[in-house]
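Researcher: Structure for this, please.
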Amino acid sequence: MKRPDRSLVSRTLLRRLAFANIVANAAIVVTGGAVRLTASGLGCPTWPRCTDESYTTTAEMGMHGVIEFGNRLLTFVLVLIAGATLLAVLAYRPRRRGAVPLALAVVLGIVAQAVIGGITVRTQLHPSIVGIHFVVSMLLLLVAYALWRRVSEPDGRKVPVVPPALRSLTWITLVASAAVIVVGVAVTGSGPHAGDADAVRNGLDPQTISQVHADLVFLLVGLTVGLWLALRAVGAPARAVRAALTLLLVELGQGVIGFVQYFTNLPALLVGLHMLGSCLVWLANLALLWSTHERHPTQLPHPQNPTETLTPARASR
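Model: Predicted structure, token format:
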């Protein structure tokens, strides 16, 4: 029998690297928000250089230049983490099916984000490009989370652990969460925190689009409450019930921050917390989705003696 290849990395290291991708991609959403909230979006007025003559910030550009350039440097940290994760996935044995494409997608997604960030600067922080930048960050979190779960699970088939109707409701809740995020991007594009005093806004009425956003939040919370109660009613696994409750609590916390920031004229600190909350709500939704199934490890036969490999007829001779 062929001896399995020796793994060059431990499973613990692989899981930690995969989880680091989630943390890093959420962190850069928050630091990117800090760039916008401090009006430092054009601290480096061009891209890929910081100025026409320099790749780094200069003293004349002040604190805005430092903040914007610092956020650009974080991209290299993300690339290093994602690259190390890809190498670990390639070196791990037995290799997890589907893990390599996910790890590669994280690397390519971060590179794509750097390019989108450059386009954002070159279009003078156009709200549509800024919005795309944020939405792609949510997609990156999705891929990074899928990778983390993939390297944490065995290589067996996926088995549902809740009824089909509740799996469908879980997907509907995820779609509602995505809609909340997209409309939230439109709210941001209509508000005062443009990243620079001269940046254009999307022209939407802030009060109207904020109301649409709030209505979708109420829908999302309602769906989550219904899903939580339904999971409890059918005796779903504890981890699924717990994931639904966690999502509900995160949504309520995010909702409180949203309402307070709206009625206090959008203070920068609360807006930054709201951006972090968006990442947490999205990740909690993904955790709930993954809790509706589990992977059963593939069982390979390990005969204890030669007769276990014989047919019943031969074994009886």
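Researcher: Any notable elements?
Model: The two ends are 27 Å apart (CA to CA). Confidence is low (pLDDT under 50) at residues 300-317.
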